[in-house]
Amino acid sequence: MTSDFLLPDNTSDSPQYTEHAGSFVHSHGTKVFIKSRLDGVLDAVAQARFNEKRWVWIPDPEMGYARAHVLNELSKQDTEVELESGQVKIVQTKDVFAMNPPQFDMAEDMAELTQLNEPCVVHNLTVRFRANQIYSGLFLVAVNPYRQLPIYSDECMQSYKGRRRGELSPHIYAVADQAYHDMLHDKENQSILITGESGAGKTENTKVAIQYLTTMASKRILNKNGTVLVNQLEQQILQANPILESFGNAQTIRNNNSSRFGKFIRIEFNMQAHICGANIEWYLLEKSRVHSQSSKERNYHIFYQLLNADKAMKEELLLNDDHASQYGFLKDSQPTIEDVDDAKEYENLINAMHIMGLKKDEIRDFLRMVAAVLHLGNIALTADYSGERADVRDFSALERTCHLLGIPAQEFKKSLLTPRIKAGRDWVNQAKSPAQVMASVDALAKTIYERNFGGLVDRINRAIDCQKTTSKMGFIGVLDIAGFEIFEVNSFEQLCINYTNEKLQQFFNHNMFVLEQEEYKKERIEWSFIDFGLDLQPTIDLIEKTNPVGILSCLEEECVAPRGTDKRFLEKLNSTWVSDDPEGKYKSIRFKESFTVKHYAGQVEYSTAGWINKNKDPLNEDITRLLARSTNRHVATLFEDYLTETEHQIPNESGLPTSSSTFSLMKLRKGGGSFRTVGQRHKQQLLSLMNTLYLTHPHFVRCILPNGRKHAGEIQALLVLDQLRCNGVLEGIRICRKGFPNRLVFADFRKRYEILCPRQASTNCFVDGRSACQTLLDSLALDSEKYRIGNTKVFFKATVLAELEEIRDRKLSEYITRFQAGCRRYIARYHLTRVSRQAEAIKIMQRNARIYVTLREWSWWKIYAKLKPLNVAYRVESQIKEKDQRIADLENSIAVHQQSYEDLQDQHSALVANYKTYKELLANEQRLTAELEETKIGLSEKLRDSKGKIDQMLAEIKQIKDQVDERQQKIDELETKASSESELLAETQKVAEDHSLERDILAAEYEALEEKHRLLESQLEAVETKSQNALMEVNQSFDSQIQERDTKIKQLKSDLEARQRNESLLQQTIETNKNQYQELISQKEVKKIYIYLERFLD
Predict the structure, then answer these.
(1) Which segments carry the region annotation Disordered (predicted)?
(2) Among the four 63, 81, 85, 206, which has the fewest Cβ within 10 Å?
(3) Do 586 and 439 share a domain, yes or no?
């Protein structure tokens, strides 16, 4: 079935699963990998805001708890606080709860919280939920997101395989992997206990855990294509869920796929750690839902799926109407679920049943019972004129019901309207009123559905528990059961559920803290052993104890008593358990038929109206005996325990009768010497379950419903807080507060907190970790009751680490303040020095500027400035002559280089012409070589043709020889006949002469062919020799010519490259000389102009 707790294959925004550095610690009985934290503040702004004020939590009627900061502590009882909205309130000090520093937000393991109180736990769950982190630690707490999250993909599943706890984010995969790992290494059975309210995600987490186990422990079988084949047993275990959901789940106000029964799924493993079988046990099926639901809820899914079955199936089950409104047990319920296709779900159900191995007849039998319940709801009754006797208004509905159940319609009607009762020694028929008959119909419908459901679970168990082997390693059990319930009106069903959760909470308390105390013993710290399971024992005794009589035992007595009533039952309870003790677990309520029981989750008021009938679960035994004699084997088997020894026996598959004693161990009914009430049966089932759980190592999962509106992303703090109490999360936190939940190894403690006492911590000599930690703790003057020092760790009470963190933050703040003051002092001095140097430099620049201005106006300086350039004119003439001589030399050099360049150009042209000639010669040689190759190929083909002709001649010669042999054989045969037939002698001699002549001719032809063959072979050998010699000569000549051409070409290339280099050098020299020549000319012209100007000025 589709659920609000959706499990997608993949989406974006996938959470990151990365490894972190860290260390191992022992926390609550399990080895845990603790990630290392940064010493610095991760969020400086939040930390600074937190340090400014003393932030606390105070109760709030709407949000549960609100943030505030303390303004003033007025007295020991009252404290003045200011809310974030600015409102100032005075609250009692006992209602003020400390807040964790910001670095503890989003803590994965709630044991790491330094303040373990209700508001801190709710706040941590809230911030994680809003960040899509729906799983949290201490033990696993799962909040239903009501939307798709990308945390259930195959990649995510593989990432948790074999990982240590704490190495990745908390997840149901981590719990399942831890259970599998513990079973393999400790050789101990494991259990995963999943509890929570309806809609909290129990069923989906159960499916995810089973899916993980079947995936990790499956046998990987590859086919020829390399794909993985799915193991049939593992597939059947997974397909058991859709079947159980169809028959045992329904839509409620809080959940579209609420499991209305508890189940314990036991998965067996063999010595190879592979799944070898499974078993399902079920508890407390909500039978009343079969005949009554609210308008916003639905009956069990199977009813609506069956109405959307194929036409042939509906015709066989007489379901002519497709609408739920046409059936009495469905007309008041919600007909459909949003985004759920009942027809598709029916196909999935049938497919799952086929995978489970159910035959078509078996499937039809189970669905027949469901259809019979639907028709039972359509039986309409009417009353006679007095209103005391009932009659059936429409007999067709009754007939359809009887047809499906395989019982006579008239006998069923008689048993329903006027059942037999025993009056003394005689049996008499008693007429029933319409209300009584309708109550009997409802009870029958509930029983039929419950027994059909039980038979279905038994059939599934036979399918999945297929390997009866003794070499089993162990099992992992997954318990999915309803959590603690507190409604406006609580009845007998709520007492059974709460009694179950009380026992499970006691088991939780025992395992959680007993293992923790074993860690204390291992570390040898001072500790008095406490059994926290005893805290719940008074409530459990109140419910189950026999002396003094408890609630269930008292109810049993009233059910057995001839005239037991609900009122007398309540009076007996009040006389036994009412006391003046304010801590008492039982309290009576005046003027009401109810009482109050103080559970671990709170006080619950139970209404005792109808408890006797609910516990007896009365049935019309005339009808049950009629069903036990049904012609339908499935129906008769379900009710066989109602047969007496004198009644007809049920034929088995072979057609032989079988005694009802075969099923004596499965009796669930009252009467016939086996009176078992609902309370007694549940108590025995719970006892068996607890015995099984105490033989396992448990892992706990607490599921939380975030809001009552099925809205994604919304979390209601009050609702979550109520569930935390009911689920035992806060009870577990209470246990942690009594112990030492926070711990650090010596090295980590010393590294983090030696800053508080640097003088005592810093020493030049070696100090062991225990002594160093003891010195630090003594220096901090901590109360010795708040911590313990073990062999390798320091243990702290809750809130102690928060105090140390605050002291450390203050110390760091002091150090940082000093450091900042030093930095500011250095910066200020540096700035001052820089400004003073700048002022001194400005003064120097100003002084130099004034001197320059004064000098510029001085007459003698003006004269000096004019005469200074004239000193160069006396050397101009000699420089001009030197430049002229250099220009002439460069012109001569240019002419020589120009001539050399022209000679090189002529040589280059000659080399290019030679290169073209040799290239043409090489092409001619290549053509000649190609012609010789073609000649060779032609001679080879002729040689092959000659060989073919020779082979053909040889074949003809062989054929002629065969003919000669054949004729010789005939001659021999004729000669043989000649001895007995003398009259044919002459004719035979004539034939022999002819044959002899022919043989001579053939012999001559053969010799001629032989001669011709030898001639052809000699010619062929000559041709081959000649062609090989010619080819060899051509190759040798061609090779020598090629070598000569290559040598000449290489020489020409080298000469050409040398000439090109010479040309480039000559060109560079010419360019240089030209530049120098132009420069000299320009300088000469400038000097001439300069001399001309000087003369002109003079």
Answers:
(1) 1-20
(2) 85
(3) no
Residue range of the domain that includes 293? 231-488
Retrieve residue 415's tokens. 């048993």
Q: Are 238 and 268 in contact (CB under 8 A)?
A: no
DSSP state letter for 53: S
Residues 950-1009: tens digit of each pLDDT = 788 788 878 887 887 787 787 777 667 655 555 555 665 676 676 667 667 777 776 777
Question: What are the residues facing 66 on neighbouring strands?
Answer: 58
Counted residue by residue, the chain has a size of 1098
Helix segments in 259-310, DSSP class H: 301-307
Gap between the terminal Cα atoms of the chain: 119
pLDDT at 354: 93
Per-residue HEC secondary structure of 961-1008 comes to: HHHHHHHHHHHHHHHHHHCCCHHHHHHHHHHHHHHHHHHHHHHHHHHH
201 annotated ligand binder: yes
Q: Does residue 390 sit in the same domain as residue 531?
A: no
Residues 242 and 276 in one domain: yes
Reported as a single tens digit per residue, the pLDDT across 156-178 is 999 998 887 667 889 999 999 99
Active site residues: 198-199, 203, 255, 258-259, 483, 485
DSSP state of 490: B
Q: What per-residue confidence (pLDDT) applies to 31?
A: 47
Long-range contacts of 993-999 (CB under 8 A, 24+ apart): 995/967, 995/968, 995/970, 995/971, 998/967, 999/964, 999/967, 999/968
Is 933 domain-assigned? no
For 338-348, write each residue's pLDDT tens digit.
889 999 999 99
Whether 874 has a pLDDT exceeding 90, the answer reads no
Distance (Å) of CA 615 to CA 73, 286, 425: 56, 14, 27
User: Is 377 assigned to a binding site?
Assistant: no
196 is in an annotated binding site: yes
Q: Are the C-beta atoms of 642 and 624 separated by less than 8 Å? A: yes
**What does the alpha-carbon distance between residue 365 and residue 633 come to, in Å, rounded to a whole number?**
9
Contacts of range 318-323, beta carbons closer than 8 Å, 24 or more positions apart: 318/371, 318/375, 318/400, 318/403, 318/404, 319/371, 319/374
CATH of the domain at 595: 1.20.58.530
